[in-house]
Fold each of these.
Amino acid sequence: MEFLESVTYKADFFMYFFGIILEIVVMSSIWTVLFKNKPEIGGTTLKGMITYSVLVFVLNSLMGRFRIYNFIVSKIRTGDIALELLRPINFQLNIFSKTIGMSLFQLIFIATPFTIIAFFSFGLTPPKDVFTLILFIISVLMSYMVNFGIFYIFSLSIFFTIENFGIVATFYITSSFFSGLIIPLWLFPPFLKNIALFLPFHTVFYTPVSIYLSKITGIDILYSFLLQLFWIVILYVAGFFLWKLTEKKIIIQGG
Amino acid sequence: METHRKKDYYSGRLNLLKVFVDYINYSKLSLKTISSYRLDFIIGIIGTILFNLVNFLAFGVFIYRFNTIAGWTFWELLFLYNIWLLSHSFYATFFRNIQNVQNYVASGEFDKFLLKPASPLAQIVGSKFYFMGAGDAILAFVMLLICSFNLKIDWNGVKFIYLFLTLFSAMLIEVSISLILSSLSFWTTKTEGIFYLIMQLNYSIAQKYPLDIYEKYIQFILTFVIPFSFMNFYPSIFILDKLDKVPFSPLLVFAAPLIGFVLFFVATLFWKFGIKNYKSTGS
């Protein structure tokens, strides 16, 4: 269903595609300027940094953080959320499966062609070996679930507070910053890096792309997988109880 | 008298003074909404400020690692960003409804504005304010003060007048480009994509980083085709005495306080012909 919905909105497709291109142009310009006359910084070459930025922005389009938000909040706004009580299926899983539908569209029509084009035009760094690529894909699958958990909880909490775009935009950019979407964590000052590692956001973009670039290797990969799993479980459980609270509130208020 | 006024608007003539008076009348209504959503308003302003502070944090990390971005220091980057933000806040607060013209035209609601004896432009612009822009204005003003203190900017008379004119001109640049793009919706219904694309150019490329870090073709586009760089880059070059960094010609620095006015004149022509075309199609 959502797959079709995405196909219907051509403008959406165009915007996503162009949005990624602009972000990458900006970031690659910045890295090019900063790496001028420096072969590498923090153990990464210019090519590595551009690869990093391309991959995080492509992943960002796949995750569709605003899509999850819009989807849930429109249900709250219209009151359709009350109808969810009638469904025999778990609300969280229901939304999750719909999100996957939308992401598949992104994967086929945007992320894949874009990555292929970027590989040839920017000359991206390939992964060290096939094994690294497989680990990267596993990590992406888990980061997808972490991201869903974060935005599911954030969006549903709108039901208890107020809908305000100032808050939404701030949450979006804060999660972007601490997830390493703009700057990878290895360039952060130690103090900020510690904050970032304490929050779940970094497991969404920083972890998979660092595995791809072999910035995380050996036993540390296992450690970051466990951390991703930890956040998936925590966020799922938190989301589960938040939905229980929501149900209660809907019933008391009579929908 | 009344019929005379109506005739004026239907002929598609644009009397700016009249537009302004209508605009003030409409804005009084919009101002009343502020008191009815006070909590939303305050949270919105705090949110807007926090949003920008996260952007500053990103500058901080770049500077922590690399000292400068192409010779631009932390405070210079903040100056560039906030000069943009201050002029943008006027657009974002008072003129943002221009971007809804495409929706009004698509839904047929635009006819409603034509029926009233006030300029359609004033009605549209004045009918909705986005008060969250006040957060941008407050933050940008405070940050500019802090920046000019840290950068020890020598505010002589020339620079002060230059800044004042530039801020006004920068606001007009954004208003005009928005108005031109909105006018396109009188001819074609597919303007959403192009509107988004060009505004995104402004937010992603012009707002945050100095123009001289980009490749020549981007510099060219943002200077001569869609002149967003006159909102912050060229003015900052002048005020921060960085004329050695100016691309193309140093003369461009002096175009910054004027270009908004020229562009606004062009935009009103677009709007005028757009409305004429809209009415002649009889839709």
Amino acid sequence: MELTRRAILAGSAAFAAALADPETAWAAAVNRADWSLGVADLDGDIAPHPMRLVRGRAPAALSGVLYRNGPARFRRPGGNSTHWFDGDGLVRRIAIDDGRATFAARFGDTHKRRLETQLGAMVVPGFGTPGTSAAKLSGNDEANAANTSVFAQGGKLWALWEGGSPLEMDPATLATRGFVTLRDDLKAMPFSAHPRYEPDGTVWNFGLAGIQAILWKLSPRGELQQAEVIKLPRASYFHDFTATERCLIIVLQPWIRERMAMPYIDGLTWRPEQGTQVLVIDKADLSRRRVWELPAFSYFHLGDAWEEGDGTIRFDLCSTTDPMFGVDGARKILLGPAAGASPPHATLARIALHPDGRGVYESSDTVAEFPRSDPRFAGEARRLTFHATGIGDGDAHLPRGLAATDLHTGRSDVWDAGPRQLVEEGIFVPRPGSTAEGDGWLVATSINLDAQATELHVLDARRVSAGPLATFRADAVAPFTFHGVFVQGARR
Amino acid sequence: MKAQFAKAQFAKAQFAGAAAAALFAVSAVAQTAAQLTLAFDCETKAGNVMLALYDSEEAFDRGGRPVKAMSVPAGQTATIEGLAPGTYGVKSFQDINGDGKMNTNPFGIPTEPYAFSNNARGHMGPPTWAEARFEVPASGAAQTIRLK
């Protein structure tokens, strides 16, 4: 009543419209918070252009291309996405060579994007967006937003989503070539956004459909070597998996798919009383499996795993006590501060699976998301995890720094970029010629809220708290990304 | 007068037993037997287009028998003659690998192109009779169906 009276007194048409339509009210609130640059709409592609060096100097030995992906279009006049994970994928390409950097970004040319452009409305259902019947979906790839991560090996560049096929793009121009079918009878089978890589580049991945999953094995050049459908112990939702040298590891959180629904998360139910199960599968014989029982927790991202001499399997993860971030937090990020406070952020946790069947889950208070590690040690014992941190300091709900956390001591080496930076996932790039874990650089993009520009930072991974060795700035700002890869030695 | 009455009688017989009438509708009754021409747009020219023609909501929406099922090589037009004028719906798919079935991936998503009359598209399922139905008048009808 108070608001109505004020609206009438103010005689504000905009305010009255906002009252009539809560989404308009949220959009207005988002426009007032400058961190909303992280989830702003980008109208179109960003043409290739040189980035300006604004701090330090890039290491001469750092050469390659950083590809990153994340949603960059959420709203259209006829209707909006209502969840962060459902915007159109924009692949960014940052080439670094000889101390210089160039920036370009291009949307994946998906069926979803074409249809929604034509209709002037976001109509396709997704992870948290209900969509409308105007989507007329006849298959999962028609909903494919190609917005979560990238695969770039063997001269291929794929934009990945988790519920459908990879979207192939030109690695130089980012022009879309179309959805990838790895084998004719496996057309449209899901290829998740979190492949795991062995040190030689061999790729393992999964695709989820309720109580079934497909396991993929690809050569380092991205050619299909093996694909097998397995039945899971339960229909858990999972976004990531992990692996040791010998095993694949699937963490079955008690966030269970109990019915088909749109949006997808409406079909999931949180059943903490059922605890978390960990399914371990022998890479050499996928029928050889073992299950460990752990207390209930929720997560999106896992670190690379390893097996110790006595058979104990260890890995780290970024976990929460419940899945409220996926259900609600990622909705509120998009809808803005008016939507209310975000749920607690993920912290770094460790898991040990002992050969005698005991499983140990140990959480910490280190705020952490987007964990990465030295790819030379994938599947082998390691002690460093690189991750985004400082999430939720202030009202942004997005990270403002990077850290290298030592899994033995729990100590973190932190770069806090301050409240005027939204810092994205940092990717570890080994220093050519080095062999020790952590000898290399962290390469990360950020959104500089004061400059209203996307930046590229290069940090010494052994001295993260020293801050960037070099920072480059683009002549454009693109929204917050989820995941990326760095292709070392690729030419600009 | 007599001739008109005879025609009406025949039309009645046709409606009473559409399938039988269709079978026997030859040149002698050309005035009441219509022709349907179906062209199929295929991205690849491999294999055959398998099509099924339905004449009722019951059959189309609830897995009943088609009044006609046939196949034509991809890229060729299907011509169905001697149809009783009325309302019809078409389901089709392109049998690229020639195994006679519409193949799906292990999670049930079709891996061969398919389409319906009016190029109707359902939402998370096949379209209904209401979306796919079309009239075939005595003068005949033609549709171009894009297989995707």
